[in-house]
Known about the structure:
The protein has helices at 29-37, 53-61, 76-84, 105-116, 133-136, 182-188, 195-200, 204-209, 229-243, and strands at residues 3-9, 23-24, 27-28, 45-50, 66-68, 92-96, 123-130, 143-146, 152-156, 171-181, 214-218. It is α/β, with parallel strands linked by helices.
Amino acid sequence: MKTVIIIPARYASTRLNAKPLIKVGGKPVIQWVYEQAKTVTAADEVIVATDNQEIFDTVKSFGGEVEMTSAEHKSGTDRIAEVISRHPEYDLIVNLQGDEPLISTQNITTAIELLKNDSQADIATLVKIVKDKDEIENPNLVKCIFDKNNYAIYFSRNKLPYERTDYEDNFYGHIGLYCYTKNALLTMTKLPQANIEKAESLEQLRAIYNGLKIKVAVVESNAIGIDTKEDLQAFENYINSKKS
C-alpha cells in the first residue's frame, strides 16, 4: 500500500501568524517538520500542501515537494483531499500538522501500521496518557475515549470521562496526527459538518458521527507542538540545548 505524508501549511494563524515561516535554529518551522517526515521509511513521499506563495517558495528553496491548493478550504483535511485527488497512486494518507517539528518518527509509523493491519479501520490516530490535572482539564488538549478494541468513541475538549464517581483508569490526550484510507478521506471531506463537530470545533467528530471507524494507539509523546509564543520559545530552547 503506497503511503504519502501530506503537511497542510497555512500562513494565517489566530495565535501565531506566519508560523510555518518562523525560523528556529536557522531553519523555518515547516522545514523542521518536512525533514522529520522524510525520516519515516514507511512512507513513500512527503508533500506540503499550501495556499500561500511564500510558503510554497520556501519549501521549494530547501528542496521539498510542495503543491498549491485552493484558498477556499476550511480545514487542512480539505486541503489534503485536493492534493490526493491529483495522486491516485496513494492508498494511505497521513495528515501531519505543520506545527509538530519534533513528532516521533516511530509514532507516525505506528499510525500507518494501524491502518495496514486493520481492514475494519478507516482512520488511525494516536493518544497519550495524561496525568497532570491541569492538562486533563485544559480545553486546548483534546481528550479521547475508546472501546475495548481501541476504536474511538468520542473526542472532547472537556475532561473525558466526567468523574461522577471514582475513576480508576487513565485519561488520554489526543495527538493531532491522522492516517486515512483514501476512501475515508475523500468521503469525509464531502460530508457536511456535524453539530457535535461544530460544538467542539473538532473535525474528527464528523467521522465518528457518520460511522467511520477511528483506530487508536496509545504512545509516548514528548513532542513540542507550536501553537503559541511560549511553545515557540520551548522549541528554540530545545534546539539550542542540542547545539550546546
